[in-house]
Each structure stands twice: as structure tokens, then as C-alpha cells.
């Protein structure tokens, strides 16, 4: 059962060429068909046979949420499945994506938005799938010391510390002053279809600041922006902020804690305060890889699920060992103390302000590995909200697209075998139609139901509405 500190498990449940996405996926049990009744549970794919491709190269970015890959390698879970896996750090998310599409990488630790965007043809066109979600939460938003000094005096206090969550409305006077000086307020995120981009945009908009809209072919997304966002690779975030190029950023760990340790910035909010238990990275592969190597795909997933379980087991008892592994130069390569500052049940917002954060990194608890259709739909709604999807789409289009990319049938094939072998408990595998149900826990109080994406989009004060499009001159 779930332990008091939050580790363990609990049982609860544009675009040119966007057309109808067909779901004729060879391995699907029923997970890629939109014809099934809404209440019908997803069933496992049928996977049998020997490993077809034992030698694999998998990519990652130097972030703590790549941990399931490192642990599967270092604890021998890949080897137990008959896999010889090489893990290779990538320079940035674009290089990683191109490596998977081009076949230089057999799969990778990916931004959840990457296989979705590739499938609908945003940025690049490729048939990628996500058969496993790697974690929940794990990001934060950090501002420079200069910005923190400008806003902290007006923030409410609680128990002698700044009250959390901190609203982006605190930035309004600073943003206004910068814009009046002709110096736009700039913040960084890691990629146009990253969770970080959407979380930063969500937080800003919830605080009454417009983060800007995208036009066709535009990767800047600064139309009508109060705050301008730009791309910076995760390990470069602290140095870019220190140089004054950006005044804050949204990134995964350990690069928020790195700013604290370097005394150059202050994290102001974690992503679980923006959306509690939000889905983060996925394991992404090409659709044709899964079709050609079904037993290999299942073996990879089994090893990663075992790693996820290990990471959350026994009240987080394995986290110090995980931090030691991740601190190696061939993985994240940050100091042990920097990684441990967010991965062992605590999070430091500022010197002297360390708070309990048992759920900051969740890998196995709360069905963290299951790739819910509704998670994919949330990302698609944010792409539409900010103009990356340039035209209105039907609710059915959102469902069909999600089912073409997120593959719970493949996850279940792997997880059910682990249950059968007594490796993971049956209660850790959800019985679901692929949707989480209505979700709350957002900073703006708006609820999300993945089955009604257009109704969800209509709730936002800031964001594209039905019938609106974006041009260089503004929203029409």
C-alpha cells in the first residue's frame, strides 16, 4: 500500500496534413480503436515469441526523470530480459527526436508532446508511439535573484515562509515595468512541445499573463505575448539565466536545484502545484519498431516497469542509491547533493526554505507508468489553446489521435506478465478504458475531462476559443 511519505503505490484511478488518424496498429488489442464503447476497458496486446533484437541503443536527456532507464540498466533489469542496452545522452530534444525517427536510436526518454506532435505533423512527421509513461511531476519554475527580490516583498507569508503555491500574478508589476522599458520579460523552456512549455504557459495564464500564441510555421509563439518564451536545453538553463538572456525558466531537475546551489535563482513553484500529479516524460519508439519487434518491445517495457517499481519501493528507500547512480557523468552528471535535493522527498525553494515533497518524483505509484489517452488529450488541448494546432478539431479527433499515439495495450502486455510472474502486485495495474476521469488539482481551479476536450478549452479566460485562428497581427 502507499506509504505515508507518498512512495509506493495506490489504486486510483497548423497543421497541414492533419487528417483522420487511422488506428490500424498491428499489436493493438483494442487500445487503438475508437469504435469501442467508452466504458470498455483496454485489453493487453498479444505478444509472444523470442526477443527479436537483443542489442539496443536508447537515448535520454540529462534529467533525473530518465531514472527508469538508468535503473533498468544498472540493476540488471534489461539484462534479465535478454537485452543488451546502451544508454546514450543526447545534446537536446531535437537531436533525440531525430535519432529515434532516423533509427539511430531504438527508443528514448521523450517529452510527452514529442510523439504526439510528430504523429499530427507539427514540426516533423513520423509515426511514433508512447507505450509507457515514465513519471509524474518533476519540474519547477525558477526566477532569477533579481526578479525574486522584486516580487518577494509582496508575497503572502505563512508560518514565517512564503505561502505556496505562488501565483504568476506576482510577476505582473515586473513584466509591466520591463515592457514599458522596451525590455520584454523573457523566460526559458526546453522545447516547443514540452511539458515545460505548457506548464509555464498554464501558470502564466492562470496568473493573468498571456504567454503568446503560435502562427503556422512559427516556433516562437510570441504573438500577443506579455511574457516571451524561448527554447534552452535543460543543462544550459542556469547559465543562460545567470547571463541575463532569460529571467526565469521551467525545467526538470536537477536544473532548478542547480540554480539554488549556485545562488543565482529561486524556484517559485513546482509543477505538481500547477497540476497535481501531472504526467511527465514518456518512453517513445517508432510504431514500426513495435510492429517489427513485438517481443523486444514488451521486454523493454517489463524492464522499465521493474525499474519504476524499484524507484518507489519501500517508502523511497532506494532513492539515495538512485541519486548516486544518476550523479554519474554518463547519466545526469550533477552533484549528488543537487540531485538529492529534489529526489529524496524534499524540495528546496530557497536557502533555508526546504519543504517536504514526497510526491515530487513519482515513477510507479498512482499508476504512473500507464499511458492514459486522457494524458495525450490534455497535451493536444494545450497545443490547440496556444495555436500549435491552428484549426478547431472535434472531440472525436482528439480521441482518435490520442489512441494512435498512446498505447496502453502494449503497457498492459508487459505489466500483466510481471503480475503473472509475481514481480509486481495486480493492484498496481489499472483496469480502465484509458481515461483518468475528471481531474482537478490545477492551480486555476479548472477541471479537465479528457472525453470533452472542446468544453475544456472553452473554460480558459486566456487561450484560443472555438473558431479563432492566429496571424502575425494577432488572434482572429
From TrEMBL:
<comment type="similarity">
    <text>Belongs to the CmpA/NrtA family.</text>
</comment>
<dbReference type="InterPro" id="IPR044527">
    <property type="entry name" value="NrtA/CpmA_ABC-bd_dom"/>
</dbReference>
<dbReference type="Pfam" id="PF13379">
    <property type="entry name" value="NMT1_2"/>
</dbReference>
<keyword id="KW-1003">Cell membrane</keyword>
<dbReference type="GO" id="GO:0012505">
    <property type="term" value="C:endomembrane system"/>
</dbReference>
<keyword id="KW-0813">Transport</keyword>
<dbReference type="InterPro" id="IPR006311">
    <property type="entry name" value="TAT_signal"/>
</dbReference>
<protein>
    <submittedName>
        <fullName>Nitrate ABC transporter substrate-binding protein</fullName>
    </submittedName>
</protein>
<keyword id="KW-0472">Membrane</keyword>
<keyword id="KW-0997">Cell inner membrane</keyword>
